[in-house]
Amino acid sequence: MAKAQQFLSALLLSLCFIIAAPLAAQERDVAQGSDAYVYEVDRLQNGAGSQDLPLQLDTPLGLLETFMEAGAEGRWADAAAALDYQTLEAGGDVDREQVAAQLYDLLYRSLSIDWAGLPDRPDAVDTLTSSEDPMAGTPRRSLRVGVLMLEGRPKTIRIARVQEAGGEPLWVFSRQTVANVPALYEVYGPTRFEEALPAPLRKQAFFTLAWWEVLALPLILLAGAIAAALTYRAIGSFRERADEDSRAYGVLQAIHMPVTLLAFAGTFAVVRETFFRLSGPARDVLDPIQILLVVAAGVAIILSVLEALFNFATSRRTDELEAPDNHADRNFYTRLSALRRIVTAVVLLAGIGIIIIASNLSNTLGFSIIASAGALGLVLVFAARKALGDIMASVQIGFAKTARIGDAVQFAGQWCYVEKIGFTHLQLRTWDERRIIAPVSSFTSESFENWTKQDASLMVHIELELDNRADVDQLRSAFRDFVREDDDVIDPDDAKCEVIDQNAKAMIVRFMARSPDPKTGWAMHCRMRENLLAAASRFDAGAGNEPVPAFIAREREVRMDAEG
């Protein structure tokens, strides 16, 4: 028993050792990893080294706050301590204070600093992020302050934690960031016009706006408005000189407002970039709006021109499209209409993509504006799901060709021609030149008659109420004479005369003949009714007194002898 207890004790001790060994190793790893997480350099070239620093460079927040404070006060010698000039000075002598002033101007004018996101800890651990963030609780030695575009490529403004031999870890603007400052300042710095302004106008008014910016914004808007007014008037003048039935007039009418909008947005952008380069917050708000206006105007011009040319082509060929045997043109213009709607959707999506990419929305205040609009857009899309379904239905009609441009259809009890297939509605022209606007869903979810889908010829029929004593053979003979003599009846042998119903008052006789197309058939239908009624009247007038057969149905009146 004692040996068994000793064996169990030895086994437990072994298990404890096996479990404790990894934990001890882990503790040693933690202890070793507790050293400062920094970039080690032989010498920190920031004009001050790591001793007697004029700025608080121990945390990211301290670096940005003291640097911006020194820049606002014009203490460029102190501000230079926040920059690592190693890469920049490798190419020759550098005016450190000038580069510090340029970097301050870039941060002040062209970026919106996320002050709440800057850690106030030497190790830059983000204590505010959620536990699901992969960087939660992780020390960092490099942070991104912002991004500026240069020659089509993003240039990141970064701060880094560096330590020179024998010194303390410090947060400074990284070497590569400092090396990019002169080139970025050429693009985003003040223009010569701004530099020539009096010093009082360059002072801060409120927020980050200088007094000259407060005065410049209305002037920029005024310049855009003047350009738009002149453009609107010029296009209007060209329209007055053009023939209203010409293609040029239709195009000018279509692009009138889009080109006016482009003139406003383009002038606004040119004046801003040439004379006034606004500071960060104003730039972050205006850039997305400016790009939105320019792209929207460009998209509207493209779509308006396509729409005008398509309408011009189809309106000029209305009679030809409605010709009985012109299936090829009807198919072509219907497919073209569907393709136009697809191109419209592609152009709109491309425009949205250009706005998102060109605005660099993820790094500007405009992202919040567009994000809010996107949330509202989701609500609108949900509310407009029927309209989206109609758009897909219009494309379906275009490719399935169930209703083609120029087709004759029977819709809601009315004879119409299809004039236009839009995104959500079809435009129909009735025989008496009225226009019916019908939702496309009616042509995909409900039945309708298409009289020209395969064969344009149409069996025209009329129904007459005749007296029960009428001699149908006499009228049939008159009907045969009509179909043989009328030029619009394409197959006289196919014509029929049939008694289809009867009641106590009259019998119903139907006469049918084939016409080449619906338009011709309507005229033939009217002539046939007129001819047969005239024949029935002649036969009825020659019948004499009853009981000789009559043709026109009569209302009989029975008189009762009051006394008998």
Helix-strand layout with pairing:
Blueprint: H1 2-33, E1 39-41, H2 60-72, H3 76-79, H4 86-89, H5 96-110, E2 142-150, E3 153-164, E4 170-173, H6 175-188, H7 192-195, E5 204-206, E6 209-210, H8 211-241, H9 247-274, H10 280-316, H11 318-321, H12 327-359, H13 366-383, H14 385-400, E7 408-411, E8 414-421, E9 425-430, E10 435-439, H15 442-445, E11 449-450, E12 458-466, H16 472-485, E13 496-502, E14 507-515, H17 518-541
Parallel strand pairs: 1-3
Antiparallel strand pairs: 2-3, 3-4, 5-6, 7-8, 7-11, 8-9, 9-10, 12-14, 13-14
Helix pairs in contact: 2-5, 5-6, 5-10, 8-9, 9-10, 10-12, 12-14, 16-17
Provide an overview of this structure:
This protein is an alpha+beta fold and 564 residues long. It folds into three domains: 41-189, no CATH class; 209-389, no CATH class; 458-541, Alpha-Beta Plaits (2-Layer Sandwich), CATH 3.30.70. It is 52% helix and 15% strand. The protein contains 17 helices and 14 strands. The protein has helices at 2-33, 60-72, 76-79, 86-89, 96-110, 175-188, 192-195, 211-241, 247-274, 280-316, 318-321, 327-359, 366-383, 385-400, 442-445, 472-485, 518-541, and strands spanning 39-41, 142-150, 153-164, 170-173, 204-206, 209-210, 408-411, 414-421, 425-430, 435-439, 449-450, 458-466, 496-502, 507-515. The strands form four sheets. A five-stranded antiparallel sheet has the order 10-9-8-7-11, with helices on both faces. Strands 1, 2, 3 and 4 form a four-stranded mixed sheet that branches. Strands 12-14-13 form a three-stranded antiparallel sheet, covered by helices on one side. β5 (204-206) and β6 (209-210) form a beta hairpin. α9 runs antiparallel to α10, α10 (280-316) packs antiparallel against α12 (327-359) and α16 crosses α17 (518-541). The longest helix has 37 residues, at 280-316. The termini are far apart. Mean pLDDT is 76; it is low at 1-5, 15-34, 362-366 and 557-564.
